[in-house]
Amino acid sequence: MRVAVLNGPNLNLLGKREPSVYGRETLADIERRLRSLAETFGVTLTFSQHNGEGELIEAIHALRGCCDGALLNAGAYTHSSLAIRDALVGVEVPFVEVHLTNIFSREPERRHSMLAPAALGVVCGFGADSYELALRGLVARVVPRG
Amino acid sequence: MRVAVLNGPNLNLLGKREPSVYGRETLADIERRLRSLAETFGVTLTFSQHNGEGELIEAIHALRGCCDGALLNAGAYTHSSLAIRDALVGVEVPFVEVHLTNIFSREPERRHSMLAPAALGVVCGFGADSYELALRGLVARVVPRG
Amino acid sequence: MRVAVLNGPNLNLLGKREPSVYGRETLADIERRLRSLAETFGVTLTFSQHNGEGELIEAIHALRGCCDGALLNAGAYTHSSLAIRDALVGVEVPFVEVHLTNIFSREPERRHSMLAPAALGVVCGFGADSYELALRGLVARVVPRG
Amino acid sequence: MRVAVLNGPNLNLLGKREPSVYGRETLADIERRLRSLAETFGVTLTFSQHNGEGELIEAIHALRGCCDGALLNAGAYTHSSLAIRDALVGVEVPFVEVHLTNIFSREPERRHSMLAPAALGVVCGFGADSYELALRGLVARVVPRG
Amino acid sequence: MRVAVLNGPNLNLLGKREPSVYGRETLADIERRLRSLAETFGVTLTFSQHNGEGELIEAIHALRGCCDGALLNAGAYTHSSLAIRDALVGVEVPFVEVHLTNIFSREPERRHSMLAPAALGVVCGFGADSYELALRGLVARVVPRG
Amino acid sequence: MRVAVLNGPNLNLLGKREPSVYGRETLADIERRLRSLAETFGVTLTFSQHNGEGELIEAIHALRGCCDGALLNAGAYTHSSLAIRDALVGVEVPFVEVHLTNIFSREPERRHSMLAPAALGVVCGFGADSYELALRGLVARVVPRG
Amino acid sequence: MRVAVLNGPNLNLLGKREPSVYGRETLADIERRLRSLAETFGVTLTFSQHNGEGELIEAIHALRGCCDGALLNAGAYTHSSLAIRDALVGVEVPFVEVHLTNIFSREPERRHSMLAPAALGVVCGFGADSYELALRGLVARVVPRG
Amino acid sequence: MRVAVLNGPNLNLLGKREPSVYGRETLADIERRLRSLAETFGVTLTFSQHNGEGELIEAIHALRGCCDGALLNAGAYTHSSLAIRDALVGVEVPFVEVHLTNIFSREPERRHSMLAPAALGVVCGFGADSYELALRGLVARVVPRG
Amino acid sequence: MRVAVLNGPNLNLLGKREPSVYGRETLADIERRLRSLAETFGVTLTFSQHNGEGELIEAIHALRGCCDGALLNAGAYTHSSLAIRDALVGVEVPFVEVHLTNIFSREPERRHSMLAPAALGVVCGFGADSYELALRGLVARVVPRG
Amino acid sequence: MRVAVLNGPNLNLLGKREPSVYGRETLADIERRLRSLAETFGVTLTFSQHNGEGELIEAIHALRGCCDGALLNAGAYTHSSLAIRDALVGVEVPFVEVHLTNIFSREPERRHSMLAPAALGVVCGFGADSYELALRGLVARVVPRG
Amino acid sequence: MRVAVLNGPNLNLLGKREPSVYGRETLADIERRLRSLAETFGVTLTFSQHNGEGELIEAIHALRGCCDGALLNAGAYTHSSLAIRDALVGVEVPFVEVHLTNIFSREPERRHSMLAPAALGVVCGFGADSYELALRGLVARVVPRG
Amino acid sequence: MRVAVLNGPNLNLLGKREPSVYGRETLADIERRLRSLAETFGVTLTFSQHNGEGELIEAIHALRGCCDGALLNAGAYTHSSLAIRDALVGVEVPFVEVHLTNIFSREPERRHSMLAPAALGVVCGFGADSYELALRGLVARVVPRG
Fold it and tell me: Which of A36, H74, I27, J98 fits a 20 to 30 Å CA distance from J80?
């Protein structure tokens, strides 16, 4: 099973950016943790980060036929990008929406997700653990319990 | 560590109620699975279901000082009950909001959660697996990684 | 054919409560009238009233597999309770929404029904006669004209 | 007792128009059924259909002083025509609003009635039976139970 | 003169629940104070708390003909329950709406009261004193100044 | 100077229709009064009433090049008809919007005029006198004070 | 008969202020014209202008018991001042709302009147003639046609 | 192939009505052009204009079973008429919505189409050419490219 | 302890203004009553009324450092004046918002208070008694129970 | 005449992406068809696709002074990008907005175009034919009929 | 060049009023600073503060023909006063809107300016420096760079 | 002191793009002017322009730890980009929002800034001078007056 983990704008700042909100773990820390969990599932992981909407869309296009599922933390694009949702639906790859923070306890402009209606599920609020939970959820749904 | 799992209205119908939406597993199946996972964490689990808003509130009150965290699937009360949110905040027990379905891909009246702003995190869309992921997330957050 | 008639909050006050709005007939009067009409159709009737949302939900659950249709006057819960609608859909019993008054000529908060989208039909504004018309409508729809 | 039954735009297509939504009975079938029921009540019935808003208004004007009640299925004008409501209030004839379908389970633009605030009551969702129930309701309200 | 004091959901937690918001006095403290004030007015007091909406409705029904006025702190139900307002109007007992906190300086979802349109008056923001002021106001309005 | 006075739906009922709202003068009375005033200004008057939106539009079309100004009481079409406004703008005849009642003190659906943005001016609330004032205003504007 | 003509903020600039919108006549010109018309009706006129909301309110208070009707052009306060409406209702003097321009063809913030619901009628769009028409309308309504 | 071209209110004024907005071509010019294009496709054309909503509905009814597609410029009815949409859906004739102007660059009340959700496609902004493009589009869709 | 009682626009009309709404007591009556109650608390009272927003603001400015608390009935300015709220916050004097009527059972434009978010508490609906209750509440909060 | 055809995000997936919605023709097929039509008009065509908003903006900038018109299918950016509209207006190139699907019969978030107010016209709903119709419309408008 | 600096309600409290928000400089400090800067530009400055809306309007009227530009900090009136905007437009004096704080990072009711649409420009968020920047901006715009 | 000046989409067109709105100065002219002013303050300036949202975000990321403040004219992204605001907050560089035009006097979609809540201050409406004023304001705030 091949899983892509896609990260959106500003996530490269993780660890330094508003640590009281986003924690002190860096994106590299998250990648390391996730690779270690993926291994236990026999899952091959690709991991990337993109600040541009167009680049994120093209990274999604590249998944078509090449991966079995995705985790997506689209950052601030979560709340507005119909183009990213269209890309996800267009490539026919099941995905889980992930957020470090509980977006529902933050500013009003972060409480709505444009992507969620197309997602398999949503995990948010567990910091870096959100990614691990999302990976478990994705694996369980795509390869359902025998 | 003691964890309470609280279920709201209509969840007693699980397995029979709109199986194409909610799946065929019953609440007893979910309880069984969850107890088995809890055991591996050394977590003591209580598990209950309540159709009345007042009863759910009183079940929450009973957690005060008696448990270390909770999973809550408040069903349709999720979207409207300020009283349940007040109860949760009042007893000072960290909780994770859980849903079987991805509430963000359903009818508009299910896309807003009155409870989420007070939650630690939210997990939705993974069917019965949502409960397991939420338990993992709760345990990880309440007893953080050493 | 078995039909359940379910009444929501404050309907036990009927006859005494704002008679200029709701009329002078009591719920017992309505039950009597309705039983008499049901008899002519060979319909077995159960008739109950519940002030709590949770109790109403449980009364609905009890209908599953035990009745062929229902009349529901959910009183003020009509306008807000997604949980009651979920219960009705969950038990798969066709129902007719009934109101004594024409809810569309009253205060704005009474002009929207959360339940109606799941109903077979709606009858309102005929006082106690609304129940009789609803019973006729239900019987005709569930046992259609040969 | 004289009762007018007025039908609005597109109802002449009944039976042919979207039969999965509106059923296969024609307006003539409904008229026949209704005349037969009216007879049992000693009610004289007039029955007409109008595609124009102005024509429907003039048909309503003609009721003034000439009939004791009306059934009105104003079709799509139901949702927008203040002029038809003004006509109904102007001629002082009590009327029941009728719909073949349950308008509350349809598109948002059909869920609001401009006419209902002026109606005696509303019956919808029972197909052609809606007319019969409405007639019963009207007769019972205009000639109340002795 | 007989006065009922009714308290809604979560008020049993008073003193322990968010003391920085609701203060350290318990509901028993408030009852004690209020009884002492009532005595000086020759008022007989009943005092109760209910977490369920249905139970609160039934407590209101019980007032019909048995008391001359009521104080009501409906907690979070204040903002949404039409059924409680219907109960209050139905039993024809004048009541004063009471809140410990100034609900208008709190979250948006607490700034609207569904009950206030039916109340004699509203007192909020004075902590436990709100109840005493409300009792004074109720007594003065029901037994007006000679 | 030639002036057309156009009246919309239900105005033929004037005198009989809700006299407490619209007064007891008939449309014929208003016509008589207006003709008498018009004479003093040397104005030739045409006067008509139309219940259909299409008929009113065609009556407006007929004004093109044949009259110097118009008074329009479009009744309930005032609040919704863009087609009538288009007709008025299309024929390039200056007009005054007239209402018997003060539409701003009535139901919300009557407080907005679709036509007013294209009008010379608006006169409302003076009963039949509104027409006379409007005629004076129109004459003064179209033949301005020397 | 005594009539007060009250003018609100910025009307002292008339003639100089945006003449393409408000015309070249000054407030003194309007006063002169209006006095001349009032004389023909045997009406005693007072005429004033106030830039402050409080001053306008006090000018209205002074009318109580001292005049039989009023014309009010409250300028920009028209669209927001509940206090001025309260003053008008409080002194029980019938008034006509007047505007030089057709406020309904201007910016959105000018299309709503806070005062109109309490007015006898509204006249707008006829420039200085609006005042004359309003005076005629007021006189006719307060001293109705014999 | 038979195609009906239906035109709504005020389009008979074309050429004279606001030529800076709608151009100088008349409806007869458009008809002539369209007939000439239709001929090249072997399409039989009917062409009509209707100012009344009811008449337009009846013109649509007449298409049932008699034509293979339609072009519709419903003028100002475009933005509000559910009855016309119902008629179009009822007769099961595929249609293209046409406008002379780009309705999306005009006043807000013209930017929404009630009809478009039921249309095959929309062409607007090309003046009289809009009709020709719409005819080409309709023909290509109804008789798809071999 | 020094307390200022500030009254806003139109309150000078009290007793004469809409007595069915506001009662027959005058502002002087209220002042008399309040002075007598203040005496029993050893409170020095200043009492004033202002029709202008600017004057009310300046009266509030004068309280800075000169008084320990205030009662404010800002009349219609309650619902719109951010400037008055700024003044109150600026002078750092705790205040209670007072209304004679229950503003929540009146017109929609009176149901929102711009001032309440900055108030200690709110008392409304008890007629002149509202002032007395507010004074008691203010004294109890500013000099809390020993 | 030189015409640029610009395509926005996800259009490179055409043919594979949701073929039931967008059809089976690829963007290369559309380009081929369009070049063939352009040739018949003597039009020189450039054709490109861009997934990034910034890249699309820069492609638009490149048109300044180098082309006489454009066709733009901005995909999901249509509904939100003010920056793209600014670019189009900034380069002063007339353009036609094109969509494969009838955006008005799809999800609410696709029914509004941020670009259309600046367009010459709009063509949507004809699949790949939309481009051909748009090219015809553009050519006819930019080089109007002699 | 003559420039007027006008300050609205509560600005007289500057230095004492919420210093954490508005800073510790007084209005006199700002005036001093501004006079010193004005001198370097050869600008004659008048400087005033007004708590009443009417007084501010009259201060604006006094500018007509007597000054070449203005700085306006209208305080809380900024967000609601159409009358002040009318005064500014009426006297034809170009003005710059100034705020000490960044009004866009404050409460929602401060984020909209009624005045800004008529302003030359807006400067906010620089404390007392906002005035200096605004003066520079005004001078540069009114006497543009040679 | 190091200051970065960042410009968003379409600003490279300055001087040529809608000169009646944006003026005739080019971005190079603004840079020249600004460099000259910066020199007088001993400020080192970097100056760049970016059409892509992702590129602008990355330019902001590059500021972290490398500059003391920024001026940002984000063009049309101002009104919608939460991702840019997140980047600005994430790099912890104080910035001033700049616009050439007074965005509050333009189309509604330009009147709201997504970025302003995170800015130090806002300067708009002074054309190229806006940048100079913003630089002065930034310098004064970051190196406050001794």
Answer: H74
